[in-house]
Amino acid sequence: MIDDLTAAREQMELSLSFHIVFAVLGVGMPWLMLAAEWRGLRTGDPRWTALARRWSKAVAVLFAVGAVSGTVLSIEFGLLWPVFMARFGSAIGLSFTLESFAFFIEAIFLALYLYGWNRLSPRVHLLTAVPVALGGMASALFVTTANAWMNGPVGLVTGPKGDLVATEPLGPFLAPTADPQMVHMALAALMCTGLAVAAVYAFAMLRDPAKRDGYHRRGLAAGALLGLTCAPLQVLVGDWATRVVADVQPAKFAAMESLPETMDGAPFHAGPFEIPNALSLLLHFDPHARVVGMDAIPPPDRPPVAVVHWSFQLMAGIGTALLALAAWALWLYLRHRRATRAARAAVSGSGTGVLAGRTGGAVHPTDRRVFLLAMVAAGPAPFVALLAGWIVTEVGRQPWIVYRVMRVPEALTSQTGLATYLYATAVIYLVLAVALVAILRRIARGTTPPDPAPTTPVRDEVPA
Amino acid sequence: MSAVDGLGLVIFVGLAAYTVLGGADFGAGLWDLSRDRAQRDLVARAMAPVWEANHVWLIFVVITLFTGFPGAFGALSRALVAPVSVALLGIVLRGAAFVFRQYGAPYGGAPVRGTALWGRVFAISSLVTPFAFGTAAGALAAGTLRADGSAGLWSPFLAPLPLLAGLLAVTCCAYLAAVYLSRDAERIDSPALVARFRRRALGTGVVAGGLALAALPVLPPALGVELRGVGLPAVVVSAAGGVLGLVLLWRRRHRAARVAAACAPVGLLAGWALGVYPWVLPGQVLLAESAAPPVIAGPVLLVLLTGLAIVAPSYVFMLRVLRAGVD
User: Fold this and answer.
1) Res B327 pLDDT > 80
2) Tens of pLDDT along A66-80?
């Protein structure tokens, strides 16, 4: 049996990981759903409406699982860390209070959306998705500020009994890492959702070429557009977040960069490579600037380096790879668009335009096997990065539960036998995950609207 | 009245809302334990759009409790580990199982493997959760808990009052659900289901009243005194609501019965809250002493009241749209 502290930490890690993976989909999917329904209404294209309906079923299931696993977290805080909650519950309370209302709004309007297809006018129905999307995003951001407070508590003063008392209701929003953490989390949720959705359609197209139709292309395009647009932004925000961490949490930063000693002209590590002076240059725009290393941190206050460092490298690596994928996808798209336009011009100009055939730029990106394979691979990637990022945030904060205020062991409950809870939680979450995936796969099946019959010769159907 | 008192009141309102709305959903889950397809469909139809919003009341109560009364939250978390863990297990399984059951066959045809099993898990976890919450409330009232959890992990389950309270909670949920479902059955013009749920509402209503009376002799003396004093109005509301609910059901006034039926458990809850007050854990933790500093309590109360002012009309709007007519 593992000891109670380890069991409690692992249980928190397990519940958070489970929640975050499904919750980001619950946060991101409503935006896709909203966009698809809006396109469907504007263009009258039934394929967009079909996508919105299909996605709303997935949202219903994901939202339910996200809701109950979120409930587990809020109660688990007390069951596992009662000392932390008893002392600082009110300090992070406003974040959660706001979150509960965002959640109420999301639940109420999601019910209207899911069960109101035939009861509301199309326009009003579309509008009900707006509070769902906003509420889901807001609840994720509010919760993230509570984490930011744990990484940089503000508003604590010494009370009459010598203990620390929370005096700033807005503390979580004023925490130094709150802003980058919120933006980073929001983009992560959208990236995960977009790329997961795109991967589903890419996988279907790979397995069955008949599925390279308008419906699946639209599904892939919507997901890829959302996920890949966020990719370059996320690189910038990640850079911002890293700078803030370097400023306010030097121990975490030293672990992220695996910097044992404070030095001038620190090198930058990217996987197995080391670039001299690059870290100093990146951080302070000066190749000889001083960067604080782990030796500046007293030994009892040091986080574990290896886990934090490799998680950070993994996250940054995936971020970079997705940036490259975004650039490639954009290039393929632009090339294809130019080629189709040229073909159209040729057709309308001569009447019997002669094309170079389906070579080069005329090939739709989804007709390229390599591109589809890349999109499939890019589906799970942001989730891995998301979890790695949370490991950086959480393990990098160790040994503190509230940075420089309360250590993790101090917060632990006196209840023993926590390993039993851990194993029970692991079994239940495994069963739920398996069942959930089976149901999402079933939702993804089912008939899809066919492409409309072409009225004018376009693209592939150009007469020879 | 200070902001801290206001927070206490908001928590009670949230608890009452969860008891009635969430309770009816758990009760509906119990009535899902049936071979009759039409009955299960009615349960699903009634629950599907609302259960998540109703469930948020629990999250709301937990959050308001740890924001407004962090000390009380810490003490309750330690004293009630076993019932809260069991309830949590029930909540996770109930919610997940319900949605898995609902979407097992999203386009008709044979459902995903295990869907029938999830249906059973849904019904059973709907029984376990209110029982666990009931025992927690009973154990608090019994006054045997310790703020550091030293009274023993399973002690909240091992006394007559908590066990009675657990059964009472389950019966109340079943009763509320039966009353609401009899009205829902009227709405879909199914006389057979109306008659069945009316019968069940009458039956569970009588049993719930009996259990509430049976709990009186096992109440700790101090609580009994409180219930004859400050708690008396709550007891009267509960008893009157209970009797009136049964009378209205008997006369087939299902619409009006819904309101009366809700009064019975809310009155019971109010009696419990007034009886335990000013303590959270009787003899151990005072509510006022575990409160957040006023500088936090004030703004939080403001946010809570503003939030409720937005959420309540949205909820009513949602009910109106989804209850109007048949799709």
Assistant:
1) no
2) 889 889 988 999 889
Which 8-state DSSP code applies to residue B109? S
A 236-275 → B contacts, CB under 8 A? none
CB contact under 8 A, B311 and A60: no
Query: Which residues does chain A have within 8 Å of residue B297's beta carbon, measured at their own beta carbons?
Result: 90
Record: contact B78-A82, CB cut-off 8 A: yes
Delimit the domains of chain B by residue range: 3-323
Q: Are A348 and A354 in contact (CB under 8 A)?
A: no
Distance (Å) from the alpha carbon of B42 to chain A's nearest alpha carbon: 15
Say how far apart CA A144 and CA B178 lie, in whole Å: 41
Q: Classify B108 in phi/psi space as left (phi over 0), alpha (psi -120 to 50) or beta.
A: left
**Structure pTM?**
0.91
| Of residues B49, B96, B149, nearest to A65 (C-beta) | B96
What pLDDT digit, counting tens, does each position of A348-362 carry?
A: 665 444 444 445 567
Question: What is the ipTM metric for this complex?
Answer: 0.92
Distance of alpha carbon B86 from alpha carbon B128, whole angstroms: 8
User: Strand pairing partners for A264?
Assistant: A290
Q: What is the pLDDT of residues B207-225, one digit of tens each?
A: 999 999 998 888 888 888 8
Q: Does A93 sit within 8 Å of B318, measured CB to CB? A: no
Task: Report yes or no: A168 and A94 within 8 Å, Cβ to Cβ.
Answer: no
* A442 contact B CB<8A: yes
Task: Flag whether pLDDT at B29 surpasses 60.
Answer: yes
A78 touches chain B (CB under 8 A): yes
Mean pLDDT of all residues in A57-63: 91
- The reply to whether residue A82 touches residue B74, judged by beta carbons under 8 angstroms, is yes
Average pLDDT over residues A307-317: 94
Which of B18, B51, B59 has the most A C-beta neighbours within 10 Å, making it the best mutation to test the interface with A? B59
Q: Which residues pair with A273 in a beta bridge?
A: A270
Closest CA to B177 of B188, B169, B165, B166: B169
Q: What average pLDDT does this structure show over A38-55?
A: 93
What is the average per-residue pLDDT within A223-252?
94
- Kindly state the average pLDDT of the residues A388-415: 91
Average pLDDT, rounded, for chain A:
89
- In chain A, which among 86-115 make CB contacts under 8 A with chain B? 86-91, 93-94, 96-101, 103-105, 107-112, 114-115
**For residue B104, pLDDT beyond 90:** no
